[in-house]
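Why does this matter for the project? Reviewers at the last site visit asked to see concrete outputs rather than summary tables. In response, this paragraph embeds two records directly. Each consists of the residue sequence and, immediately after it, the corresponding structure tokens. Nothing has been edited or filtered.
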Amino acid sequence: MNLKCYSSLHKAIVNWQMSGLPNEKEAVYGALDRWIAWETEFPLIAAAKALRILRKRNQWKRVIQVAKWMLSKGQGATMGTYDTLLLAFDMDGRVDEAESLWNMILHTHYRSISKRLFSRMISLYDHHNVPDKIIEAFADMEELGVKPDEDTIRRVARAFQVIGQEDKQRPVLSKYLSKWKYIHYKGERIRVRRDAWDD
């Protein structure tokens, strides 16, 4: 493995904004291919590191381009890459592309989809006001036995309310929300029963 190439690929991806590279898929993929042309192995570490930096810089279009390029090469097909790509689709308003990727993940990895990925997709649907899709994703989550976190449950409950199915809201909340929650009272953290406090 050529560490120098990893470093140069990583720098090239992170700094290509200033290199005047156009946004067209062919130009981007061509440049990325040239940067790794002499490598015997795909520089996955460098590409993953570049993705992390682009994500921190909120360069969502670049994140999408690099992640799609990696996947087109048969590289980086991990839950972490999928999570980053779904987030980038969300931030760039590309709900249809996110949904296509999500359907592929569901059909290919349905036995091993993490809570984090389900939460990411439900969050995306919530940000873009698609309550019926939130309910669908939640149904898949339940079917696969993945336990949702509190934030996800609140989004699901709100989606039931938006589509006029309030009768399904309470059972979901009581099934998944903990009976206890912590509040801060007079500078101390106190555990209280959720229902007693909420009522």
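We now turn to the second protein, recorded in exactly the same manner.
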Amino acid sequence: MKNLFDLTGKIVVITGASSGIGVQLAKAFALQGANVAIIARRYERLEVLAKELEKLGVESLAVKCDVSIEEDVKNAVASILNKFKKIDVLINNAGVASLGSVDEISEEEWNRVIDTNLKGIFLMSKYVVRNMKENSYGRIINTASVCGIVGSKNVPLHAYNASKGAVINLTKGMATSLAKYGITVNGIGPGLFKSEMTEKTLFKPENLKIYNAVCPMGRPGKEGELDGAAIYFASDASSYTTGQTIFVDGGFTSI
């Protein structure tokens, strides 16, 4: 039987790949045989990761890019196509969060979150989809969040809520329009996972205690527990699945 999850030779682009979930996904895809282009603002970290990926027997390309700046994105995609000639899978993972209620957060901070989390997906997709249409094939995976469909009583994350809610519906809109070109668009909604973004806030003992009390599994996610959903959406196993967001959250959004 054909291995539906085999990604050998596929070209996967991952944004926000200098830390956290992006690093983990890059390694997961390399282990499945995919060649990986990694994108982030912190190029020195990307260089280190690229060498790790190549030790797994795949090709890798590190590209410095701020996904909220169109010229950066345009040049980054051009560099990737120059090396790999095509893009099979785009993982829009770059994201930032900001604590604050709507009556506290500054306009500048609001724009920073929306520009990275939402505008970044728009810009990356804008330039990658053109190549996918030419090839009549593509897999786009957007990193959403449980915060896109629920609020947080103890830690206000209003800009983040707004951005991730929009990501979920943008995923549906893109999916319905791009299906005829052989392109699927799906989302992954993580619950609480440790990252640079969460370690100093949501992983504080008092906040973690509340999360664990509410989450049916009683714990945050572990490294690697997002890999399966991402590989599924990127592979032939999900060929008839589009417009969906899977919440990998220990049951958090089921209560």
